[in-house]
Amino acid sequence: MISAQTFKRPSLLLELTKMLSVKRKVQDWLRSEVVDDSPNDERLFPTLKPPEGLTLWLTGLSGSGKTTIAKGVERELKERHCLVELLDGDVVRTNLSKGLSFSKEDREINIRRLGFVSNLLSRNRVVAIVAAISPYRNARDEVRQMTENFIEVYINAPLEVCEERDVKGLYAMARNGEITAFTGINDPYEEPLNPDIVCYTSEESVEESIAKVITELERLEYIPAKLRIEDLI
Predict the structure, then answer these.
(1) For residue 99, what pLDDT band results from cuts at 50, 70 and 90?
(2) What is the dihedral of CA 212, 216, 62, 189, to 10 degrees?
(3) pLDDT band at 90, cuts 50/70/90?
(4) Is 62 a catalytic residue?
(5) From start to end of 78-213, where are the E strands?
(6) Contact, 85 vs 125, CB < 8 A?
(7) Which one of 97, 118, 122, 134 is the catalytic residue?
(8) How far, rounded to the nearest angstrom, does the alpha carbon of residue 223 sit from its chain's CA centroid?
(9) Which H or E element spans position 193?
(10) 109-118 b/e with 16+ CB inside 10 Å = b?
(11) DSSP-assigned states of every residue in 31-42
(12) Which CATH number is associated with domain 54-219?
């Protein structure tokens, strides 16, 4: 606040005048360099689509890497301030689908439930990531048809590789007849015919598979590209 004493002291008044002059020059520079020019600078203010919801459906054999990749994608999207929910098949079976068997009928019910929940989320601008074996093609296609924005990611790994990764020994138990209706051994897995993304996890690193998914979502403009400092230089 400027007091009345300031106007009685010429030296203070002169200093105040200089300060105001400098302030005006800074304001004029900011106005010309930032306010007037920056709206046209797409490096600083890129044109983005309004955020949209999406169902990102990861399907593949047990042990193919679905959950690992799903968690990596989830982490990357959260860093970009996207709304994200991960629906993992194993977790869902202990809650939403508790009591269902592994018969074909019950598995299709499980897929429909996952599809229903993910569709509700995506309608509210959430990226719903589903990581589930979902072995039957018709059930997956049914979910696609009921979902506006649906991306199918095939986590492709050979059966022998999945068996090698199986720390729980489920494949061995299935081959010994201790587990029935186990996908890939005594129950079929129907590969996607036209998946939107394919991750070959026996050939790619986890980071490469995650980057492949993120790059495609950027290309389709479902998520914003990560802004890098070098892009502004």
Answers:
(1) confident
(2) -130
(3) confident
(4) no
(5) 84-88, 127-131, 150-156, 197-200
(6) no
(7) 134
(8) 8
(9) none
(10) ebbeebbebb
(11) IIIIITTGGG-T
(12) 3.40.50.300
pLDDT above 90 for 25: no
Contacts of 112 (CB under 8 A, 6+ apart): 139, 142, 143
Rounded to 10°, the helix 66-79/206-219 angle is: 50
42-77 tens-digit pLDDT: 444 444 455 679 999 999 999 999 999 999 999 999
Tell me how crowded residue 27 is: count the other CB atoms within 10 A of its CB. Answer: 11
In this predicted structure, what is the pLDDT of residue 46? 46
For position 24, what pLDDT does the model report? 56
79 DSSP 8-state letter: H
Report the amino acid identity of residue 21: S
Give the residue-averaged pLDDT of 176-197: 95
Tell me the two tokens of residue 24: 């005006």
Q: What is the pLDDT of residue 50?
A: 55
Q: Do 97 and 113 touch, CB atoms closer than 8 A?
A: yes
- How much is the average pLDDT of 86-93? 91
Residues near 144 by Cβ (< 8 Å), separated by ≥ 6?
A: 57, 150, 152
Least confident segment among 46-50, 173-177, 181-185: 46-50
Residue 216, token pair as written in the block: 């495609």
| Residues 6+ away with beta carbon under 8 Å from 76 | 210, 214
**Is 143 within 8 Å of 55 (Cβ atoms)?**
yes
Task: Specify the residue for token string 């010309």.
Answer: 32
Angstrom distance (rounded) from CA 74 to CA 86: 7
**Tokens at 190, concatenated:** 């129907």
Global confidence as pTM = 0.76
